[in-house]
Structure prediction request, 163 residues.
Amino acid sequence: MGQEPWPHAPVPSLAGDVWHWQLEAMHVVSRVRADLRARVAHPSVCSTSTDDARDGLLLVFEELASNALRHGGGAVRALVVAGTDGWLLDLSDEAPDRPPVPAVDRDPALGGMGLHLVAQLSTDYGWESRPGRKHVWAMLPNGLAPLETGSVPEPRAGEHHRD
Prediction:
């Protein structure tokens, strides 16, 4: 299963509630995931997202957080922005010279398939290097509306679009 390298692109900006955590070690990931689960279970978030979208957010968070701790190192920070149409996850570490590298032609039983999963569940993703830090990010949909910066124009009378 060949795949393009993880795209080098700046972290997008998204308006919304900002949540952030420090991840000192792998055992902290499950505590932060539980906190994130509680935040997205709040009625204001539940009413604007689907169960599958919230599960996807938690899964992508866990993948990116464990990758940052395993392959990045230093002070790992997690940032989640809850926007009206979805979420931005930004995991940063102190290894700006080590980009994320999706596994290629590896037996899934050996692990390392997390970035492929992130790519499948996200509407956009990438990484950028900043002084002293690497940011790996993903945009996730809320399951109800497309997560886009622009809007799709409505078809004019007489035009038909097929999906």
Summary: Residues 17-141 form a domain with the Heat Shock Protein 90 fold (CATH 3.30.565.10). The chain is about 30% helix and 25% strand. Confidence is low (pLDDT under 50) at residues 147-163.
